[in-house]
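Usage

Read records sequentially. Each one opens with the input sequence:
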Amino acid sequence: MTDRPFSTASYRDAARALAATGQRIYANGWSPATSSNYSVRLNATHAAITRSGKDKGLLRETDIMAVDLQGQPATDGKPSAETLLHTQVYQRFPEIGAVLHTHSHASTVLTMHWPANMLTLEGYELLKALEGIHTHESRLQIPVFDNTQDIAALASEVDTAMAEGAISHAYLIRGHGLYTWASDLPSCYRQLEALEVLLAVELDRRRLSGV
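and closes with the structure output:
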């Protein structure tokens, strides 16, 4: 495609950064096989995102494509089936520059074994790794949405919850995984890492306490 509405340099930089970040995420076991998807905002109207069906442990720059904020391809390739869950965040929050979605063991067990629609993380020092949190004396409530193949409906449900102020840093999809976002990709990875570690700790604590 020619006459792209974003710079080639920014697109290449985003593809390179997403490929490298994806390999880090895979190495931690949070994105097995072809699961998960990652994106970076290119400008006010477009984002770079992982193509559908790519092995995240082998992610390359050529496995990244561009879409508009309605989820339509702006370069060659098939976007992730969950693209609208990324573009919804970019439309809702103009200051957000990256979205990461993982399928970890901890997030799957926590949301399937315990049926609550909210998961609370409280009192952890590592919460300070999240944007805007400055003390361990904090409570992070992460909404849990039911899994569905109707991604447009789920994106609408998430958007409503965000509009109502019910979501701050992340949300979970039951039996599926975690979504989180931040101002740029390094900040988003830091936040993801903190959340995944906290979810694993929370899972261990519940097992030990027999909850």
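Summary fields computed downstream for this record:
- Helices lie at 8-27, 83-92, 105-113, 151-163, 185-209.
- The mean pLDDT is 95.
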